[in-house]
Design brief:
405 residues; alpha/beta; Arc Repressor Mutant, subunit A; Nucleotidyltransferase, domain 5; 3 domains; 5-stranded mixed beta sheet; 14 strands; 34% helix; 18% strand
Length: 405
């Protein structure tokens, strides 16, 4: 049974999470403790007991076991209170590690995260389009490279998560792939093929949903309980968070904004991905005779293509504004977060442009959500992938955040 992560009040005191003192529940209780410690940074045993309703004895047993497993670190005693000094415990950064693989339409990337969500090592590669066997070969070599950063601690790696687009073989024309070169993905079992080269458990998730998970787990907007997440990458996608939990939907593709109809030229409808996608910017750059390499290789300086960026922001913002308003008419989101595979400065400009476009629309009867910047950026999909084994092994899960195979 999967249990949502506890909801926090403004004062950071959890509202609903009760532990169990019954035997057989230690696995859940350990996850609960790790989740709370991770949320708060550090907690003493008395804090854990108060938040969960577990007995002091039960909490002591759990904490001792987590310390013995090297998952928690004991801090300096906090004196000045009545009774015994309070000893805070925090997550051990080296207590567990997680691999996250992003398979994208223009690049692939593998990251190694520590228990706190910090990137320990990262390897990436860009291409015109992905091929299955090339992806397997990249992953095999990249795993060896990133594990070299934690010699002797490889046994602490909990798993490898994969973030990949839904039906990767689709929209080949949109990304400029001729013929049927992407068709090989249709019958390619990503989980099975990567599992064959990995000694770690493998998990698979839609890439935009994974990016949303990264924002929820590692981002700066974790107080939000209901939001739509928009990730503008090669194409555009997204995710949905309801009641503090990631909602992936019946097929795991909830929040797939790319095909959403928006106004196009001449009054006809077009799909959102035809405007708010980086391939649109790439085409504009190529038409000017420039190399769009900075778009796909994580460069922070896009000043060389400023004219194309400005026009692309206008086009994207207009269509994204319609998508935001349409989505808000269905679900009363608290906020909409916008992120993508571009520098933070471009993200800020895009969000401001969307706000301006929303101001020009008729929103009578619609509670327009707050528009905010996402906080992860280009690496969001890989981080989201790495969060899959993190939740599966150590934390209380959020709705259907991941699927094991």
């Amino acid at each position: 049974m999967q249990v949502p992560i506890p909801v926090l009040r403004e004062d950071n005191i959890p509202i609903t999470h009760r532990g169990s003192n019954q035997s057989g529940m230690r696995a859940y209780n350990e996850r609960l403790v790790l989740t709370l410690v991770r949320r708060h940074g550090s907690l003493a045993k008395t804090d854990i007991a108060r938040m969960t309703g577990l007995s002091a004895q039960t909490v002591s047993v759990i904490m001792r076991q987590l310390e013995a497993d090297e998952l928690l670190l004991r801090g300096e005693p906090m004196r000045g209170r009545v009774g015994q000094p309070s000893v805070p415990l925090s997550l051990n950064p080296e207590g567990a590690f997680f691999l996250g693989l992003k398979i994208g339409r223009r690049s692939c990337e593998l990251v190694l995260l520590d228990f706190l969500g910090k990137i320990v090592a990262r390897v990436s590669r860009s291409y015109s389009y992905p091929l299955p066997q090339d992806t397997v070969d990249f992953t095999r070599k990249a795993i060896v490279q990133v594990l070299a950063a934690i010699p002797g601690r490889e046994y602490r790696v909990a798993g490898l998560g994969i973030a990949t687009p839904f039906e990767l073989w689709n929209w080949a024309d949109e990304i400029g792939v001729e013929g049927d070169q992407m068709e090989a993905w249709r019958d390619f079992d990503v989980h099975a093929r990567i599992s064959a080269i990995s000694e770690f458990p493998v998990y698979v998730q839609n890439d935009a949903t994974a990016a949303c998970a990264a924002e929820l787990v590692f981002g700066e907007n974790n107080r939000l309980q209901d939001f739509m997440y928009v990730y503008v990458g090669t194409l555009v996608g997204g995710g949905i968070v309801l009641n503090g939990s990631l909602y992936s939907g019946r097929t795991g593709n909830a929040g797939a904004l790319g095909p959403m109809p928006v106004p196009g030229r001449g009054g006809r409808s077009v799909q959102l991905l035809e405007h708010a996608s980086l391939v649109v910017l790439e085409r504009a750059v190529q038409e000017r005779g420039l190399d769009p390499v900075m778009i796909w290789e994580g460069h922070d300086d896009w000043s060389e293509i400023e004219a194309e960026v400005s026009e692309w922001i206008k086009l994207s913002a207009r269509s994204l504004a319609h998508a935001v308003v349409a989505s808000a008419s269905v679900i009363d989101f608290e906020a909409v977060l916008v992120d993508g595979g571009f520098p933070a400065a471009i993200r800020k400009r895009l969000v401001k442009a969307i706000e301006a476009e929303i101001g020009s629309l008729d929103v009578q009867g619609i509670a327009v959500p707050a528009l905010k910047e996402g906080s992860i950026g280009t690496v969001a999909r890989a981080l989201g992938a790495a969060s899959l084994p993190l939740f599966d092994k150590y934390l209380i899960d959020q709705n259907t955040l991941m699927r094991d195979g």
